[in-house]
Structure formats: structure tokens, C-alpha cells
């Protein structure tokens, strides 16, 4: 069976499933102005965060890379960076490093002598881009144009057992149709490293996954001396849960374990390091190029991504408090082809149908800190 959807073709060959104008703050201090500009133009979304000021080293680079990644996401038609002027994460540095395959500009509050002038200038720029957005039409494109994220969060093992066979087969189908799939490699999945390593392409990835499965990446150590170190092994319950979660990755070869905000350079199945914080994980997936994310959860969640449609998938459960936020429920009805149903809904969402979370206007963005700010 062939699959296709209707998306927005970009000049760099990628395809967006939404056509947003991203108004992006370079620093927390410009967040209010960023939101004010975005609120004045319907096609615009505000991408704000708490970082950008007094950051150094890897902590600063993570913030910069995340903002560069989100600006390059194919769901964004264009990007306007809004800075203050005195921050570590300068707009000029973002513009210098950003991909030039789409409209992208930057302005600063101090350079324009105040917030009011910045709002006027920013609104003028965004309104011009909005005219282009309004004229662009969706075109039929193959499934190979799509990058889909898979993320399991806030889900118990029993619920996971009900959902993983369906999502695993969805992942396999996407890979068979040359799509790109990025599965969130959370701490809960690491104990399954040895299991995943059997499908890894290349010795380095195999070794890295095996080490993760042995607990060598953990921060808690049982014994450290000058001559040896021994890590605290994963518990039997952690290993059991991870083995079930591993089924979310399907059965196809794993090409790479991507670092934070790293984008895959080939089609197929990849893993991506993600934090336990949902919004930070989704922001990371957006920066890594995902068009959308399938979230697997026990009961639905009250959070989403500002730039990505998030399709919420839950098992049939009589105790689901957020069922109005669920897009698809995996029932125990054996006569239902859940894999096809999920794919059909995914294609509808990629072609413009709003997810339940989008209908509620839920969308956030966040970047973690990996060091001390000064």
C-alpha cells in the first residue's frame, strides 16, 4: 500500500506539515516582546525560553544549537530572532550560523531603542512573510518526506505492553516507506541497550548501546577507586520496563544515536537523547527536524510542542482523566487494524487536521541547562 500526505514543499527539499512563522527570542529578556509580535500576526508562533543570558561553554552552545535547530525545522516558513542586545546568545551569532534556505532575520531591542520600536519593526517583517504564507498551498508528497518522532512518557508497564506492538509496527511501516523515524532514547529505555544493539549499524553504535545497557552511562556509581570503577546495575524492574519500551522502536536497523538537537543525515530509524521533561524533550525533537511526534502515554498529557503537532496515543483505560486530549485509543478489539488506523490519522494530521492538543491551544518550548549561569 502506498501512502502520501499534503504538505508544504521547502526550497531545501524538506516538507513542512505546518506553515508557521517563528518569532524566536534569543534570550529570556526578549520574551515579552517576542510574544507581543507573534500575537499580532495569526500565522506567527512565539518561541520563547528562559535561557540565553550569562551562559558559557556547552550550556551556551546547547541553547544556540536548539534555537538554530528549531529555526531550520521544516514546519517553519520563516524565522525572526528577537534579541535584547547585551545577552551571551547574540542575534548576530544566530544569523551567522543559521541555514539560509528560508527567510530569516533578526532585530534587537537595544539597537532599536526600545520595545515599542521593536514591536513595530518586527510586526512589519512578519506581516510581509504572512502574505507569502497565505499564498502557499499544500502539495501531494510521499511518506518519505516525513520525519516522525516517537516518545513514551508517563506510562506504566501494563499500558506500554498494550500499545508497543501497534507503534512498533507503525515505525516499521514508516521505515519501509523511506520515512525518517526518531525515537526518544530516555533513561528508562537505556537498560534495553544490549537488546537494541543487535540492530545497530556499525561497531561504535553497538558498543555505545551495550554500555548504556550495562549502566555505564549512569550518574550513580557503586564504587570508584584510583584503579577501577563499578557502576550500580539496573534493577530487574528497570530492565523489564525497558525491554517492553524497546518494542516501540519496531524491528528495523538503527542507524544512529543522535546527540541533543542533532539532525539525522539519512532516512530510516534513529535514536535521540531526550530529557525526562516532556516539553524539553519535544523541543529537542523539533530542533532535530521532526515534523510531528507520536506521544505514547497512559492517560494523556496537558502539554505539547509549540512547533510540532503531537498525536496522543493511549491504551484503552477506564481511568483516563484527560481523554479529551487523546487522539487515538488502542482498544482490545482484535477486529480493528490499529496500525492502519494510526497511520490514517497520522496522514490526516500531516495534511492539516489539528490534533486534540492543538485544538486546546497547548504548545510550549523549553531548553534545559547543563551548567551554571553567571
UniProtKB/TrEMBL annotation:
InterPro entries in the cross-refs: GD_AH_C, GD_AH_second, UxaA_altronate/galactarate_dh
A Pfam family reported for this protein in Swiss-Prot or TrEMBL: GD_AH_second
Annotated keywords: Hydrolase, Lyase
Signal peptide: none
The UniProt record lists the keyword Lyase: yes
Presence of keyword Nucleus: no
Domain of life: Bacteria
GO molecular function: hydrolase activity; lyase activity
D-galactarate/Altronate dehydratase second domain ranges (all copies): 7-133
D-galactarate/Altronate dehydratase C-terminal domain span: 144-371
GO biological process: D-galacturonate catabolic process
Entry's family note: Belongs to the UxaA family.
PANTHER family: ALTRONATE DEHYDRATASE, ALTRONATE/GALACTARATE DEHYDRATASE
Name this polypeptide is given: Altronate hydrolase
